[in-house]
Automatic annotation (TrEMBL):
Name listed for the protein in its UniProt record: Major facilitator superfamily transporter
Any single Pfam family the record assigns to this protein: MFS_1
Segments forming domain Thioesterase: 553-631
Topology of the protein relative to the lipid bilayer: Multi-pass membrane protein
Molecular function via GO: transmembrane transporter activity
Native organism taxonomy: Eukaryota, Fungi, Dikarya, Ascomycota, Pezizomycotina
Length: 645
């Protein structure tokens, strides 16, 4: 069994008035540190844990640790909590059910296997939708033009794609209903085939039909940022979204370079350059769709390249970011329509949607019109294809840099405002270049802030909207919500539908009262001969909401906490099959107040079974501060209630 060492709890004075993130079960403001000379036994599963429901709560049991002497723990009593050792107040260590190195290893695997692959998919998606601009100046307009010619055909071809794209964007909800590896494979295959079939179009109406199908296929891919939120924390999401979105300027760079090569070498071939362009750039998506079936994991727990231990780490690291769920409540899979209604009725959602809509006007139009704009500046067709490359390559680099800084400093609005203004300035220069007589070199330079700006705004807006979702359905529904935060406090007490434990699971479960409640115990080993768990320890983070006097907890709350932790002895033993099921109730509780319980601070509460006679259990409870000083203690008698005949 595990040996805990060096209990440290944050000093009350050092945390007073401090705003900290809401704690979670996996990592709270009450923290432990294992001495540096502990070694993990990889052969026995490294640092492992067991999660068990406790009549309203959960407990974690750490095991498979080697003690400092190199000998296996014999399962004897662990008195490290009551060692009374004084520790430096300046050091607050980290209690986690996984190590930082383990977390980094999991994140690196997701970066390599998930992020880079979906970035490749998005690059192919953007390539297939935007290469029509390159095809236009490669002879497509002349070959498909009707008689008599009409200048509106090309514009309607572009519009048809976005009408279908917008009309079917609800398909992002299907991420909640269809396993990701199946869904992604289907939509990638659909747009790949459609993109390649554009090469056989003999008229603009036929091309418009293919563009509608392409828009439907690619509309289903809009849920990728939501999919990434399955694997990454909120503060990690912007950079991963940036890698994904940066595939768009990279795709445009690639499309322009490839278009230059195809046009250059297909001038005298049997296939028209623009037809070969659609075929060459569309068919790779068909091949990648097959690979997506095997590469895309549905959830972190189903990733085949993770070990069993890494799957647990992947789940635990995101635990505190999930919405509060009551004990015994099984989270129903699929779409929650009431949450879709909530997001549609939220005015902030519509404001964010307006931001995204306006940004997308620039995001989607420049790639399909830039080759024509450059051609009208006086450049040849080949020169126009080549000059389209540098602005998008710089946009690719700036997206990664901006997103990295945004994640590092946890700021979204500032970069969005800056890049939106830069993009608007670039577009304004292009719009007024002719009236003001700007020479072609200056007009070309205006393309750079326009391209760099809108790609950054799109990236950060997506990350911002995903960050602010309190559940999985809301980002799937719209990718948008009001800027703000969701309370992420998680205790070890969860409400039941029959209102049992309602006091601690709901009434006192707030950021201002008891912000964190973590329960720990150690099961007796077979060698110890012990027939029950005789000691339960709990860490509670107290806030000012429990005060009776300034910065001092109310005496009634102190007694209630002692009674609650002492009472945890019974569900802990029941779920381990060590005592009979049934109701165990307090017969008396004698509380002695030794020192004021100051707030805010994290306290250690230890409940110890002293004697058992039939249905009677004598249990003592002690509250200690970070230095091991006793603040309060209690003697109690619990009795198992007789069943009525």
């Amino acid at each position: 069994m595990a040996q805990f060492s060096r209990l440290r709890v944050p000093d009350a004075s050092s945390r007073a008035g401090e705003t900290s993130p809401s704690p979670s079960v996996a990592q709270t403001t009450a923290e432990f540190d294992l001495d540096s000379n502990f070694e993990l036994d990889d052969a026995e599963g490294d640092l492992q844990f067991r999660e068990a429901e406790l009549g309203g709560g959960q407990a974690y049991e750490l095991k498979s640790l080697v003690n400092p002497t190199g000998k296996k723990d014999d399962g004897g009593e662990d008195d490290s909590f009551s060692s009374r050792r004084r520790m430096s107040d300046s050091t607050v260590s980290s209690f986690q059910l996984y190590t930082p190195d383990e977390e980094c290893a999991v994140v690196r695997k997701f970066d390599r296997r998930v992020v880079l692959f979906v970035a490749l998919l998005f690059m192919l998606s953007f390539l297939d939708r935007s290469n029509i601009g390159n095809a236009r100046i490669a002879g497509m307009d002349e070959d498909l033009q009707s008689q008599p010619p009409w200048d509106g055909w090309y514009e309607w071809t572009l519009t048809a794609f976005y009408i279908a794209y917008i009309a079917f964007e609800w398909m992002s909800l299907l991420w909640k209903l269809i396993p990701a590896h199946i869904y992604v494979s289907m939509i990638v295959l659909s747009w790949g085939l459609t993109a390649a079939l554009q090469s056989v179009a003999v008229s603009y109406p036929m091309l418009i039909f293919f563009r509608v199908l392409l828009g439907i296929g690619e509309a289903g891919f809009t849920g990728i940022p939501f999919y990434l939120s399955f694997f990454f924390k909120r503060e990690e999401l912007a950079f991963r979204t940036a890698i994904f979105i940066s595939a768009a300027p990279l795709a445009t760079t690639f499309a322009s370079s490839l278009a230059w090569l195809i046009i250059n070498f297909a001038e005298y071939g049997p296939i028209a350059p623009w037809r070969l362009l659609f075929l060459v750039e569309g068919f790779p998506s068909v091949l990648v769709a097959v690979a997506a079936w095997h590469i895309i994991p549905d959830t972190p727990e189903t990733a085949p390249y993770l070990t069993a231990r890494e799957r647990k780490v992947a789940r635990l690291r995101l635990r505190h970011q999930k919405p509060h769920q009551t004990r015994g409540e099984k989270k129903a899979p699929g779409l929650k329509l009431h949450e879709v209604v909530v997001i549609l009725c939220d005015p902030m959602a519509w404001l964010t949607a307006a931001m995204f809509f306006l940004t997308n006007m620039a995001y989607s139009s420049l790639p399909v019109f830039l080759p024509k704009i450059l051609h009208e500046m006086g450049h040849s067709r080949l020169e126009s294809q080549g000059l389209s490359v540098p602005p998008y390559f710089l946009a690719f680099l700036f997206v990664l840099l901006t997103a990295h800084l945004s994640d590092r400093f946890q700021i979204r609005s500032g970069p969005i405002i800056f890049h939106a203004l830069a993009s608007a300035a670039g577009y304004a220069a292009l719009a007024f270049s002719e009236p003001f007589g700007l020479p072609p070199p200056l007009r070309y330079l205006a393309v750079y802030p326009a391209a760099i700006g809108f790609f950054n705004v799109v990236t950060l807006t997506i990350a911002w909207s995903i960050n602010n979702q309190p559940s999985e359905t809301l980002p799937a529904a719209a990718h948008i919500d009001a800027p703000g935060t969701v309370r992420e406090t998680a205790s070890s007490r969860f409400p039941k539908q029959d209102t049992e434990d309602e006091l601690f699971s709901t009434t006192l479960h707030t950021d201002k009262t008891i912000a964190a409640f973590l329960t720990l115990y150690k099961r007796p080993s077979a060698a110890s001969g012990e027939n029950m768990i005789r000691e339960v320890k709990a860490l509670l983070t107290l806030r000012h909401g429990v005060n009776g006097y300034p910065n001092v907890s109310h005496g009634g709350i102190v007694a209630t906490i002692l009674d609650e932790v002492i009472g945890l002895v019974f569900p802990v033993n029941k779920i381990n099959g060590l005592i009979p099921d049934g109701a165990y109730m307090t017969a008396y509780l004698n509380t002695q107040y030794v020192r004021p319980v100051q707030t805010p601070q994290t306290i250690l509460v230890v409940a110890t079974v002293k004697k058992v006679e039939g249905r009677k259990y004598w249990i003592e409870g002690v509250i200690e501060d970070k230095d091991g000083q006793v603040l309060a203690k209690a003697e109690s008698l619990y009795v198992k209630v007789k069943e009525k005949l």
